[in-house]
Design goal:
Structural class: mainly alpha
Number of helices: 20
Largest sheet: 2 strands, antiparallel
Oligomer: single chain
Strand content: under 5%
Strand order of the largest sheet: 1-2
Number of strands: 2
Mean pLDDT: 82
Shape: globular
Order of helices and strands: HHHHHHHHHHHHHHHHEEHHHH
Helix content: over 70%
Length: 450
């Protein structure tokens, strides 16, 4: 069992914080790897069960639904009971369901078991406030970014699962993942710690904690996160089968190329946290949205052939991204969303320091629901139009909503570039910290100690 928390500011305390950050990031990576499992094993399951695109979208998205819905209560429980015990129990609860997945034979079996496997996705709302409170405010963006780099579990899944599928069949994947999750629970418990000073006082009710959700800014951050995280989850689940269908690639090659999006979209989140600490959440998020808009515009254009009547007779042209250009644009999009995932949570740590768990839970819920709804819509659009790039057309429209919203609520009041641009845009009046979510004076004092 881990030692008791050291005195704040001491070298031992800093070492303890680093240990917690490392082991928590590892735990989140494994959880995310499990959460994205259907992105690979769903392909042979789709073939075996003869599923259409919509049914495949629902199959891949089912775990995302549960992982999204549990984020709010998990964030609140983390504030109340501490991240260490909540994270350990959450991971342990998923092990039996992961193992049972290997014995499923019918479509409804996968959907039901997938709901329980999806609990692993709720780990983000536990680890984010747990890790942040072990670091000073000026380093919280970086700390949350490092922890959020566990999103790279989506890429790890694309490296590990295809090899297991080809060598042993898809059923081996959940068996191996169950063993890995069990080992991670043990490792996390022995290298993490609990600090009672990080807890919200026991006499503060759930209703008191949720009062800050009345702030309309929370809805805006939910919209941002539904893109940078929800879109990341959805495309991580969708890309392997996209490469297989659009370019006719082998599942292993398709997974490797899909990892070019998933990997930077995860590991570079820490850089996004550092940039948000340095330049402010507003500036980083604004540029993330514009880069996303450009990338999705390019990705939306379908493979096109057309004929033009010229003075020399008909002349045919073809237009569309080849596999190399497509992968390069996807990699840029993954980098942008990695930065965006960190910058959105920098908003939260700046404005809701006393209520990080509850606010991160509701924003994480919105992002997770985006990751649930989008694959289903991708499949429905594909069945309806027969155009695979319709998935990117949908995301392009969603980014437009965020750009317009952000312009009218933030950009019109902020000079992003130029000699008058503030060094830290998140300190402008529209980003002043919200009042504590509770009137209890003990909560403010407790947060200060955190």
């Amino acid at each position: 069992m881990a030692a008791a928390p050291a005195q704040a500011g001491s070298p031992q305390r800093r070492r303890q914080a680093v240990s917690i950050l490392v082991v928590s990031t590892l735990a989140f990576t494994v959880c995310f790897m499990v959460w994205m499992m259907f992105g690979v094993i769903g392909i042979p399951i789709k073939k075996a069960l003869n599923l259409n695109a919509t049914e495949f979208g629902l199959l891949t998205a089912t775990p995302v639904l549960t992982g999204s819905l549990v984020r709010v209560p998990l964030g609140i429980w983390t504030d109340r009971f501490g991240g260490r015990i909540v994270m350990a129990l959450l991971m342990a609860a998923t092990v039996p369901a992961i193992w049972l997945m290997s014995h499923a034979t019918q479509y409804w079996h996968f959907l039901v078991i997938g709901l329980f496997v999806g609990l692993a996705g709720g780990s983000f709302s536990v680890g984010t406030p747990y890790v942040a409170r072990w670091f000073p405010k000026h380093k919280q963006g970086f700390a949350m970014g490092v922890y959020g780099a566990g999103n790279s579990g989506a890429a790890v899944n694309k490296f590990v699962a295809p090899a297991l599928v080809v060598a042993f069949g898809w059923a081996m994947v959940p068996q191996v993942y169950a063993a890995v999750m069990l080992g991670t629970v043990v490792l996390f418990w022995f290298f993490s710690a609990h600090d009672p000073a990080h807890l919200v006082p026991g006499n503060v009710s759930f209703t008191d904690q949720l009062k800050a959700l009345k702030d309309p800014r929370v809805l805006k951050y939910c919209q941002y996160y539904s893109i940078v995280f929800g879109g990341y989850v959805a495309l991580s689940l969708w890309m392997v089968q996209y490469y297989v269908g659009e370019y006719g690639l082998d599942i292993r090659v398709a997974a490797l190329l899909a990892a070019c999006f998933s990997l930077p979209g995860g590991v570079l989140r820490a850089i996004g946290g550092w940039l948000s600490d340095r330049h402010g959440a507003h500036s980083v998020t604004w540029w993330v949205m514009w880069v996303s808009w450009i990338c999705l515009f390019l990705l939306s254009y379908p493979q096109t052939e057309f004929t033009v009547a010229t003075v020399n007779g008909p002349r045919s042209f073809s237009f569309g991204l080849n596999v190399y250009a497509f992968t390069a644009v996807m990699a840029v999009l993954g980098v942008a969303w990695a930065f965006g995932k960190a910058s959105v949570f920098k908003y939260i740590s700046d404005e809701y320091p006393q209520n990080i768990g509850a606010i991160s839970g509701i924003v994480g819920l919105a992002g997770g629901l985006g990751g649930f709804v989008l694959p289903i819509m991708f499949g429905a659009l594909l069945d309806l139009t027969g155009v695979r790039s319709s998935a990117f057309m949908l995301m392009y429209g969603v980014v437009w909503v965020s750009l317009i919203w952000m312009y009218f609520t933030e950009v019109r009041r902020t000079e992003v570039m130029g000699r008058n641009a503030p060094e830290s845009p998140h300190l402008l009046p529209q980003h002043t910290p919200a009042p504590p979510a509770t009137a209890n004076p003990g909560a403010a004092a407790n947060a200060a100690r955190a």
